[in-house]
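Glyoxalase/bleomycin resistance protein/dioxygenase
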Amino acid sequence: MSGVKELAYVVYEVSDLADWEHFAAGLLGMQVGHKGAGSIGFRTDEKAYRWLCTEGPADDLAATGYLVDSGSSLDRIVEKLRGAGVEVTEGGSALATARQVDRIVITADPLGNRLELVTGFTDAETPFHSDALLGRFVTGSGGAGHEVLVSKGVSREEYLAFYMDILGFRISDFIVEEVAPGIVADVVFLHCNPRHHSVAFGNMPHPKKMHHFMVEVSDIRDVGMAYDRCMDAKQPFEMTLGMHPNDRMFSFYVRTPSGFSVEYGWGGLLIDDETWQVETLGKLSSWGHRPPEMVHGLLGQAPFTNTPPEGAR
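Structure:
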């Protein structure tokens, strides 16, 4: 597959860098890569960073960085973008230095999300280390993880043409489920390498550009330990432990300090394009992934706290 090779990094504009440091490093087990005036980078592997948080009021996704396999491939993508009437600009040396890449090109997808197409993403000078993890984060040829973006009414044909015809993504599968009377979740999942999906799109009622970003770990015990750390810290959850039917990810969803979520998972399925068959599935989760308020109702007590129920002291 030529063109985009992986989701290399994401940039978030966040209102509280200290909260994000506690969340990403303290709870999720990432390593602080660098701290500067108004920004902080977080590492999950040998790269200089995978998440970059810059200070600002948006509390939302600011940019997605996609690694392209070569300069000639990037030139071809730029030509396709301009041929389709999409605005493209060269990022210049200052931005390339800040993002720690050799070259950077800036464009936007049909949803208005800023995309940074890059070559030569830099490794850090020191090995990755996390005191919290038993294993490691799963990146490598699969990139930083995946993101699920809110399509906000933009037609599927329009954004699929952009991501598939220009950037070279392929459809993994679809999930269509009526999650409440009259409310249908209709999500399409796309891949650019063996990771089941690097990006997905759903037309869902959500105030942010991003519904969630997924990070994967190599040791299932790290999912449970991160779950406990988030509970102990009383970090708000979006969904409990569960598993998806398409990528087979065992995971939970926890809210970031900026309001969108992180999926923290293990065991994601890899795709072989020679044998993969696109399907439409009818459920977002095979089991679990329940909203905390549902668990609260079942247990009859406040969820995710260390306070025992009345009479149990």
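Residues 71-83 form the longest helix (13 residues).
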